[in-house]
Amino acid sequence: MIHEVLTSMILEAFLSKYPDRKTEIEALQVNWKSQEPSNEEWNTKKELSNIINAAFQVYLKEEALQSQSFNYWSTYVSDLFPILRDLTNSLRSGDWILYLSAIERATSLFFFFGRTNYCRWTPLFLQDCYQLKEKFPLLYDSYIHGGFVVNTTKKGSGVPFDQALEQCYNRPAKVSGGIIGVTRKKEAVALWGIIKHKKDQYVDLLEMRDDVGGELSLHHDFNPSTTTKVVKMVQDIEEYLLNVCSSLRDQGMLKNVLTGEIVTKLTESAIQMAERFLVKCLKPSTDMETFDDLRIAAFDRTKQKKDQTRGSTLGAVAETPMPVLSRKSFKKLPEWDFEDIYNQDAPPRQTTCAKSLRNSQDESFKKAFLPNIRLLMHKINMSEWNRLSHFNNPFGFMEFNHDEVMAGAKLIPKPNEPLLLPKPGSDRCMSCAVVGMGGILNGSKMGKEIDAHDYVFRMNGAITKGFEEDVGNRTSVYVHTAHSITASKYLLRKYGYKSIPDDEGIKYVMIPEGMRDFNWMEGLFKNQTVTAGQYKNKRPWTYYAEQYNETRFYVLHQDFLRYVRNRFLKSPHLNDPHWAIVRPTNGAFTLFLALHTCDTVSAYGFITEDFRKYSTYYVEKHIKTKVILYSNHDYILEKNVWKKLHDSKILKLYQRLESETGTKSPSKMP
Description:
- It contains 25 helices and 11 strands.
- The protein has helices at 2-17, 20-27, 39-66, 68-93, 96-112, 116-135, 137-144, 161-164, 170-174, 186-195, 198-210, 224-245, 269-282, 291-299, 306-309, 363-368, 382-388, 402-409, 447-451, 468-471, 482-491, 515-526, 558-567, 586-595, 635-647; strands at residues 149-150, 159-160, 431-435, 455-459, 477-480, 507-510, 553-555, 600-604, 652-653, 656-658, 664-666.
- The chain has a 7-stranded parallel sheet with strand order 7-6-5-4-3-8-9.
- β6, α22 and β7 (553-555) form a beta-alpha-beta unit.
- It is globular, with a radius of gyration of 29 Å.
């Protein structure tokens, strides 16, 4: 209850500071009495929910820097409570992996609060647990299927096996040769076999005590009197916390909620000591330096060499997928020793164009630009999988299951490269326009200029019908994700959206944003409905306006996406707790695809210095909407990069200038 009260109080403080977010949260509500929401509506609400959550995480960080009290309670809600919750849930459900995760996260807290015995034995206990699969696979198999707890027939009723033995069998389980130390003492395994048969007896005993009436349920039903009592308890807790600590935001110093006394400033020294101690505990019996190393070694029987498991050698061939890494294990973007190493085996592109951006003398651009970076995805061998599994999506396969991804990835056709060829009769320079959906194009009359380029790139909604005068009507390359191609049909319908661009010979390029995109590709390449994930039962090929042809379908490579982020658009927000959702926009990826494909590039409808003067999208002709800078993209960083590339003559950015009379008029591009 305390957790619920604190969460509510923090959320109210957030909404009081940012009242506009309240409207967005209200937009997430569903009226169940009306027609059931469509999949598109659900997807839209899910995207909005992620954006609000990211903004909330930024708010938490900002407030924590200003108030120790707020920092403490926010930490309790975000870090301490999840450990307790996961530990409890793992024991009730018999989830061994979740149990180990909760124990590992709790270890630093034992050091912080000076729990000597836990500090001494927890690292050794974890080491035992992580080595079970390799040393005692039968015991590991029992644990992974819930054998480390005693269960009744009631769902979620697991009791730790150690706790079940506490009264009668505690001594034989904990004496020398007991369960702790099982990977180092063979007699411990034998002892486990002796006492294991007692599990059945405890199951019977628990069933008799808990299920006298027969049928079991996970929770008691709340009758009206119980509900009233709970509501009163919640109100009392909130009143008490407010009386003792004042406002969570206004209380600058941290107070003890029981005594009201000021608590001295906390430091991270205890956490750092814990980390050093954990490493020290690991080193005597292994050559591992971190828990990530230990986990990789314990769960991978092939004992791959370190350069293979960490992916520092691109050509090495591994036999099995590495253990799945979790984004929750990292408080900010992890930096690997091979972070800035990319496949550079794209077919060399020869150009005789004197104006080509590849001939730029700008030092910073020359240093960052990789002309032969692999742009497109095709075959992924196991070594590549393991290397890319260190990076979160869309930059890699972190948290993804190998077989699930490969069901779609293995079907990706070999790309016809290069993506584009110079037009016959041109001046040997391949000119490209990249058209975003920014409101700056509304009334710009740039349509003819855009269509005059050799090739035109578009992304996302890409509506042209009815807006030709401002945005043109040609599309040569269309960049999308499974989300953008499905959500546009729903979100942009009122602006006349019918389908994605369907020009003859158009090239479709996909950004593999998440697991849903690989599910989408599997259905698309097999010409069947999607069988799993968010778009289950959808027919992907119907979204391509009868222009889908696998010889003109491409998928951007994770190395290229990561290269764009690392070398050009590395946001400081990648150091924030919500780092995993921060990525460049689809428009940014499209613009850099053009920069690596064409000789000259012009960008239209992208964010500029005066972006607040325009509506969000050019389709909003008769209204002025406020531009919202969502937390999963660093729009300000992108704005600055586009301006820098324009000033350096790498690309031409369409901008509108103020006339002397104060009215906006289109400016010709230099």
